[in-house]
Amino acid sequence: LQMSSLQVSEEVRQFLKTPTFDNWQWEDAEIMVLLQVMYTDLDFIAAFNIEPEVLQQFLFEVYRRYNNIPFHNFKHCFCVTQMMYGLIWLTDLKSKMDSIDLLIMLTSAVCHDLDHTGYNNAYQINARTELALRYNDISPLENHHCAVAFEILEKTESNIFRNVSMDQYKRIREGIIKCILATDMTRHNEILNKFKSILPAFDFNNRDHRDVLMMILIKVSDISNEARPMEVAEPWLDCLLQEFYNQSDVEKLEGLPVTPFMDRDKVTKPSSQTGFIRFVLLPLFIELANLFPCLEQHIIDPVRKALDYYTEMEKALEREKQNRAQ
Ligand SMILES: COc1ccc(NC(=O)[C@H](C)Nc2nc3c(cnn3-c3ccccc3C)c(=O)[nH]2)cc1
Ligand SMILES: [Zn+2]
After folding, report:
1. d(C-alpha 313, C-alpha 319), whole Å
2. Is the pTM for the entire model greater than 0.95?
3. Which ligand is nearest to the CA of 192?
4. 7: exposed, middle or buried (C-beta count within 10 Å: 0-12, 13-18, 19+)?
5. For atom 10 of ligand 1, which residue has the closest CA?
6. C-beta atoms surrounding 174 within 10 Å
7. Burial of 293 (0-12, 13-18, 19+ CB in 10 A)
8. Most buried in the list 88, 178, 199, 285, measured by CB within 10 Å?
């Protein structure tokens, strides 16, 4: 996996800051370079004295620890990190938050699904896997992703934080743990409600407010595929359903409870998406847009278009089913 960060043009560097970036156009080796560009263009290299070869080793270890499964793979890690990077520039967060918080957010996105096996927490708990046992059924996957991140960071040659102070390292570790654990979707309403409650008097100088915002930003980045152009987003839904169907097939074989929206006999692409967009994605994005109005046109409009697209598809499927029934 050869990479050097010299060959990225100014045009690509600008494109990388937008939510329309198409991950499918790039090889893994090029994606590794694009991830380095993000750390460089946010001035983390200078601000935290990160040595380029250590950053490369860190990203290579990360690359190695993601698995080749349909959805929660290294390309997903890149998409989430690239969306986080785009949100940082779109909302001008550099002028509102400390650089160390931005470093926490970007690194959390890079590491947030490390060593995902393609089976969600419900499966881990029902099947009483080693992870569920180790983490007592408490966000087993997210605890594992975070533990793997710090296994990588414990090694000197891949510890991008090895030149920061003890206090900075403590703050970075606390922040990454909070952000990665926040990606457990069973905590979705808990975190969204907390954000809603502080929004009316949001204060960037309030540590608790900043912590909740960081959790909301990684959550938004994590499930934001439908904010991208349809030709980028639709393949991701196919990958996701592949992983979900694989899990529900195994659950059926093992006599374990099957999650309805993962069951290939129950779910269709449009039906899974219209519900998700209406009840999960839009409410979350609309709350964030309350704080950053510019996200209306960059993130919310594309999601409304996706909702229209899947609603139309759902109706067409319905009509087809009626015709077949007659
Ligand atoms: C509250 O917990 C939830 C809520 C909804 C869902 N997922 C869905 O409703 C369906 C399957 N669709 C869906 N789920 C998605 C998307 C993006 N990420 N994502 C996802 C993937 C893994 C785990 C959880 C989610 C939300 C997406 O575009 N669509 C999964 C968990
Ligand atoms: Zn994820």
Report:
1. 10
2. yes
3. 1
4. exposed
5. 272
6. 12
7. exposed
8. 285
